[in-house]
Amino acid sequence: MVANSFSGELYYSMDLNGLAMDVDGDNFGTCLTSFIDDGTVESHRYFLARRTMLEMLKDRGFAIPNSEIGTTLIEFREKYGQRPDIDRLRISAMHRTDLTNKVLVIFCGPNAVKVNVIRSILTQIMNKESLSRLILVIQNQMTNPAMKAVELCSFKVEIFQITDLLVNITKQVLKPRHELLTDAEKEKLLKKYNLEEKQLPRMSQKDAIARYYGLEKGQVVKVTYSSEIIETHVTHRCVCSFSGEFYCEITSRNEYGFQEKQEKEQ
Length: 266
Description:
Subcellular location: Nucleus
Organism: Anisodus acutangulus
Keywords: Nucleus
GO molecular function, one term: DNA binding
Number of strands: 15
Radius of gyration: 25 Å
Mean pLDDT: 82
Pfam families: RNA_pol_Rpb5_C, RNA_pol_Rpb5_N
């Protein structure tokens, strides 16, 4: 490290291995150049998207090995190469508690998804009658004929843009915790506060969190906010097919106990 007596700036020299060192030749850290990714952007995008998808499936209750989620970028490239074959990126899993609930994830190429692509995918799926859900990860727009072909499927089909999967939104530190209530817990909540389902605060089925967990219309989630200012704040939201007004909100604060707050909006 060399100090400039005029500007006060500090300078470092480097050894042949890219490690920064002071003027006495002592290494003390890795140079930033060692963090440069020499691999392809394509492989990096597939790695991030596939990891998020694996985390998503596990959070939905599907049997996903931790070893799969913990795969590093280097290991991913060693297995799939710098330009991965999208057919090898497919994910097939069964639910941990419901073995009849099976999901298949298919990655599509960079071109627009046309109806012939959807038909090709459907012809490759074996035992369609046992499949509960198909998730398509696309990188371009999907044509209207392709969308209509998807709607005719006997199983539910979800579509995600690969750019939406580069980051797992549930890992964001400011994101509140979402917990899906069982049918019994939902009925208990409505009975406790003498409410109807339509009176609960709403969450659009198109909401990013709702899509991440694959929430269906009518399901209720418990949303817990935590911060140094409000400490803990709990509310419940009912998933609906559209975003609209809500009639009342049930809130909870740990310092006051569980309380009911009613608001009517026009």
